[in-house]
Design goal:
Number of strands of chain B: 0
Shape of chain B: flat
Order of helices and strands of chain B: HHHH
Number of strands of chain A: 2
Oligomer: heterodimer
Distance between the termini of chain B: 63 Å
Strand order of the largest sheet of chain A: 1-2
Number of domains of chain A: 1
Structural class of chain B: mainly alpha
Strand content of chain A: under 5%
Radius of gyration of chain B: 27 Å
Order of helices and strands of chain A: HHEEHHHHHHHHHHHHHHHHH
Largest sheet of chain B: none
Distance between the termini of chain A: 36 Å
Helix content of chain B: 55-70%
Number of helices of chain A: 19
Strand content of chain B: under 5%
Number of helices of chain B: 4
Largest sheet of chain A: 2 strands, antiparallel
Shape of chain A: globular
Structural class of chain A: mainly alpha
Largest interface: A-B, 9 and 11 residues
């Protein structure tokens, strides 16, 4: 019997390997040394791992190749997402260091889980096979389930982790069923063909009207549902407010930024690149989800009394705005969505950094009333939060404005001006609750006899400073990042 | 045999109905022929013939869970090792190195478990 031994091209997953090795080193070194030598070296190890992974991702820029027997796509699209993820990971680790030392939580597992999650998310962006995509989805989801429950003594955290886990497992089942049906329809789970003979979803979808597409369309629907859970699109959003509220704030920021960009990377690759020939079949579905997501996210955020819950609904609404770019399904839509996800990620990590600092030990101060007069106690933090909220609302001179402009512009280019009208209306509703926080911070006096807003350590303040700087810089000089996003092309066979 | 795409599902449907009927008919038949003598003992939970003690709602030590988890690790290791060992000669050095890495990672997991005092019982 002749065996076909696959070529092992480990270079294709070098960033993921670097992260995994770093995470294992962190776990084992800390387990062996214990707490005798304090834990100052752990964030350095995590930082090193993430920087190396980011660098390994960057050096394959402009490579257009399939690796590991067609399982991994090395293209600029994946690279752009990977670098964004490395940055989100770095900010989360630094913010986490401050948070964990303040709340006296176990450190090594936190960094290791963040690194594992980033590795899974990076794999998600590069997956060129539905099975690899599922593997990546599970890798980062399982890490996130544990991270959400990281305050394990808190019943609130347990509840939110349980909800997130149950619905996450549910969505994985949908996704897997979609893969099974896609296999039934096409006979392979590969997205791209590796040879002239090989079958693939792309080849099948673009074969023309003679092929029977019913099963593939059904599979596509299930895959959209499965990924819809991960990007928190309505009606698959029910876990979001609870998970975001119960999780430690650094983890919440990481989920909002990383989980979203990874889920969208997979969704954009499947819909806008592979199933592009079937766009008239999936567009009605995605348009429906986008409209629901924008409206429900914005309207429900208005009535929230807890800042973390409010930001959770705002992140749902933002998923809807990105979906508008996905619906556009043109080059500007893809690059616009990537730009949106990268800048939104930085802004949302920054907002949760401020929330994490102002919440104080044990995260007891997250209600809107706790923010009364925050400006007069912590002017710099309140100022940074103002900037982030304005960026989330899409006010000019912030990155959020540019992001909305590109995504909506792409939709108009494809003729979906009415979708843009709904998007702008939803943004207007959303602006109300962002401004509500500002009113509370600037115009109301702090309640007498309540302890003042706490301050953060230098690392947390540094994260706020970096994200605030990027929010303004990408709002004024968006050129380089837009440029990179426009060069973030998908893998093209024979290109 | 019914033919066609949906015909095949008719077979499954008939199978399901026969299965359902089997259960319903035997239970109803038993109810008709058996004597009916209720007594309090018959309403207690069956615990291998012994009188039940305490509540059914008890805590199980969480350590069993960690043991089960460790068991799964070595289970998976065995699943990978056996086919690997059978075709080892034909695979060559590369497969050997791959397996060393795999076992190495599992060994790290075991080291981690030992250091976290998982293997000590209370």
């Amino acid at each position: 019997m002749e065996m076909d031994i696959p070529r092992i091209e480990l270079a294709g997953i070098a960033p993921e390997i670097a992260l995994t090795v770093a995470a294992l080193v962190i776990l084992v070194v800390h387990a062996v040394l214990g707490n005798r030598f304090s834990t100052w070296y752990l964030p350095y190890l995590a930082t090193l791992g993430l920087v190396v992974a980011g660098a390994l991702a960057v050096i394959v820029w402009d490579v257009n190749d399939l690796q590991l027997s067609g399982m991994i796509a090395l293209d600029n699209f994946a690279t752009f997402v990977k670098v964004s993820l490395a940055v989100f990971g770095l900010l989360t680790v630094w913010l986490g260091r401050d948070y964990l030392t303040r709340d006296r939580l176990e450190e090594s597992e936190f960094y290791a889980l963040v690194l594992f999650a980033v590795a899974g998310m990076m794999l998600m962006a590069a997956a060129a096979d539905l099975i690899v995509m599922f593997l990546a989805l599970e890798t980062f989801s399982i890490a996130l389930y544990v991270l959400v429950a990281f305050k394990r003594r808190s019943t609130e955290a347990q509840e939110s982790a349980m909800k997130y886990f149950l619905l996450g497992a549910f969505s994985s089942a949908f996704f897997l069923f979609g893969i099974a049906l896609a296999y039934g329809a096409v006979g392979t789970t590969n997205l791209y063909s590796t040879g002239p003979e090989a079958d693939s979803l792309f080849r099948f979808a673009s074969a023309g009207p003679s092929t029977d597409l019913d099963l593939l369309v059904l599979a596509m629907g299930l895959i959209i549902v499965g990924l819809g859970f991960k990007i928190a699109a309505v009606p698959f959003h029910a876990w979001t407010p609870d998970a975001y509220q119960g999780a430690p704030s650094p983890v919440t920021g990481f989920m909002a930024a990383g989980s979203k960009i990874a889920g969208f990377a997979a969704l954009i690759r499947v819909l806008d690149a592979i199933l592009f020939p079937l766009r008239w079949d999936w567009r009605p579905l995605v348009i429906g989800i986008a409209v629901l997501t924008m409206i429900v996210g914005s309207v429900l955020a208005v009535v929230q009394e807890d800042v973390k819950r409010m930001l959770a609904y705002s992140s749902i609404a933002h998923a809807g705005f990105v979906l508008v770019g996905v619906v556009a399904a043109n080059d500007r839509g893809v690059s616009g969505s990537l730009f949106y996800l990268a800048t939104y990620g930085l802004t949302v990590v920054g907002s949760f950094a401020v929330v994490s600092i102002l919440a104080g030990p044990g995260e007891h101060r997250t209600r809107l009333t706790d923010y009364r007069g925050a400006f007069y106690q912590r002017p710099l933090l309140a100022g940074a939060l103002t900037l982030f909220l304005l960026a989330l609302a899409g006010v000019p001179v912030t990155s959020g404005f540019v992001a909305k402009l590109v995504v909506f512009g792409a939709a108009i280019e494809s003729g979906y001006w009415w979708l843009v009208v709904i998007g702008v209306l939803a943004s207007a509703i959303a602006a109300f609750f962002y401004l509500r926080v500002l009113v509370v911070m600037y115009m109301q006096e702090p309640i007498e006899g309540v302890e003042p807003a706490p301050s953060g350590g230098w690392l947390a303040n540094g994260v706020v400073a970096i994200t605030a700087a990027t929010t303004i810089v990408f709002g004024l000089a968006w050129g380089p990042l837009i440029d990179a996003a426009e060069h973030a092309r998908f893998f093209v066979a024979g290109g | 045999m019914p033919k066609g795409y949906f015909g095949q599902y008719v077979t499954i449907g008939i199978f399901g109905l026969v299965g359902l009927a089997l259960v319903v008919v035997t239970l109803q038949l038993a109810r008709l022929v058996r004597p009916n003598v209720p007594s309090p003992e018959k309403y207690t939970t069956y615990e291998s013939g012994i009188d039940p003690i305490g509540q059914g709602w008890v805590h199980t030590n969480v350590r069993y869970y960690i043991y089960a988890l460790l068991f799964v690790i070595f289970d998976v290791e065995a699943i990978f090792l056996f086919p690997w060992a059978i075709v080892f000669e034909r695979l060559g050095t590369q497969a050997f190195i791959e397996m060393i890495i795999f076992i190495g990672i599992l060994a790290l997991a075991l080291l981690y478990a030992i250091r976290k005092k998982v293997l000590e019982w209370l």
